[in-house]
């Protein structure tokens, strides 16, 4: 592996500068400086894509950094996935677009007289091998500070010993301006503890599970090698766990080789990030102080747009943990784990998207990733299970609609949450080609999958049941979602065709899996499967006459298990909402607050501060959001605010999971303005306050058995009665309801 190249160019600016812009795409990553000053605050830039389809560039305002006279620009290039050399099971070291790092940039300075000074990346630049000897998103970085040239990004530096770079062929992908928020250093953590594992080996606890890297300060003789191994958990002997069979050999380890000298040296990596809480440090001349090993929190910079709080402290803990887990997995794409894979697993994003879009402003972020999904479609219409893909994830596992139907699901959610129908127009052709491909491969009217309800308790991956049930259910939802967008866009023929296909799927699913005893089962079941019953309930697939028996069977199994779930990622995402919707919020509360295996409480009683991948304590990843979707229930059922459609033009307020909670509130900054719900029990009464933004209306479900028990404010309209609720319509404004006990 060649070291990270340094490229520099000196140029003169003879006139005053009114405006200057740098347009830059350094693959896979770039770090740029102008006259010795860093350009921008972004890191790990530009965003990761399928480079055969799309190559992104960033734009920076560099007006304050330019000066009249001599100037110099310097760029360091990192490998990322584009130039990865670390072997791994997903073949990121040999995708079809693989290449050595390369640079395309253009600096334009505008002058008062209308002329411009332009500097472009060409063979007039100078290049050398830099001090970053290796860099890998999986293995980490090795940096030899002895090789770092001083002041090389300032004018006047002697680069006579450097060579001219060669012109490189561009990747095949179309060059596009980066549409999403950049990755930045968001926060800095001071360690909460440093222990000495054995002489000269220190283990640093950052106090929380995060994604990013360590900022090292060290004073040591030249040539001293300091290693920093990052991991989310500790082994039995107290050392940091940092290995995986998916990436053999070195993993999540940085190495810094000291330059020596009178002053302390400060270093942090530029071209990799790690998932970690603990850092094992070796090679230091003395025990480090906390300020010597700071944790850097690094992820895509998205705004937090909502808040949740309630009287149950554990619910607030779950909310905070899920938000942190999601942020730790935002690095230009939604990843599954910042430590072990860093892959854009489509199923994880499908399950986490509702919480992600409620907690954070991700319109640009998800819009970019939808472009990645479109780019990933092959000639047949298939999508891979990880996006972007370097060729892995199509036939390696086999098609998996519970994963890849994230594409139609997100197109629908972008309209629901942001009122964005442009996304659907842009993706319509690719989207319908994908769904037609899924329909063409049905077997006996059912969808087939390679994955299913992944990681239920007691199973290391795929569940034991017939996974055609969940595959068919998810494809059914994808078809109905897309039919609804077809109505919006005027594609009536496609909408009708997909509704017909969805009805056929529903009929086939019920014929195959709804048994004579009134619940869903498959021939492969080793026992009752909660997901097989919760998913059809959640997706509206259960015939009216069977709903009561399906719900009763689900509650009976949960009770028999001592109020424990028995679901993997798919079932977990819907279980509590289904129970609340069908009159069993007490059972949902018992599961949510359970402290023994398998449960969220079991994790947190054993030291969790983020969501884990697996239910058992030896979970591979401890920063994995797809089992943490309890938060959607917290927002939609405990607090009771549910997005309706068209950018919250309509939404529903229904706090139907009040068991064990005396008050709850949530607020969100929608595209129309702030919306919020707050309710509290005051004696025998329940007070409910709802805020509706301009241009929106809310359907408010007030908990009361009879209408005469509700005091509703003037300006709202009574709509109907449902069991346990009186329903009103509320336009823009703030509305106070009282339900008397």
- Which of globular, elongated, flat, extended, rod-shaped describes the shape? globular
Query: Could you give the distance between the termini?
Result: 72 Å
- CATH structural class of the largest domain: Mainly Alpha
CATH topology of the largest domain: the name is Glycosyltransferase
Give the amount of beta strand, in percent. 25-35%
Unreliable runs, pLDDT <50, ≥5 residues?
none
Major sheet details: 11 strands, mixed
The structural class is: alpha+beta
Give the overall average pLDDT: 97
Total individual domains? 4
Q: Please give the share of residues in helix.
A: 10-25%
The CATH architecture of the largest domain would be Alpha/alpha barrel
Number of strands: 32
The number of helical segments is 14
Our Rg estimate from Cα atoms comes to: 28 Å
Defining key terms:
alpha+beta, Jelly Rolls, Glycosyltransferase, eleven-stranded mixed sheet, 32 strands, 25% helix, globular
Structural commentary:
With 741 residues, the chain is α+β, with helices and mostly antiparallel strands. It contains 14 helices and 32 strands. Strand 26 (673-682) and strand 27 form a beta hairpin. The longest helix is centred in the middle third of the chain and has 22 residues, at 468-489. 54% of the residues are buried. Helix 9 (530-538) packs across helix 11 (569-581). The protein folds into 4 domains: 5-180, Sandwich (Jelly Rolls); 186-300, Jelly Rolls; 306-637, Glycosyltransferase, CATH 1.50.10.10; 643-739, Maltose phosphorylase, domain 3 (Sandwich), CATH 2.60.420. The chain starts with a strand and ends with a strand. The mean pLDDT is 97.
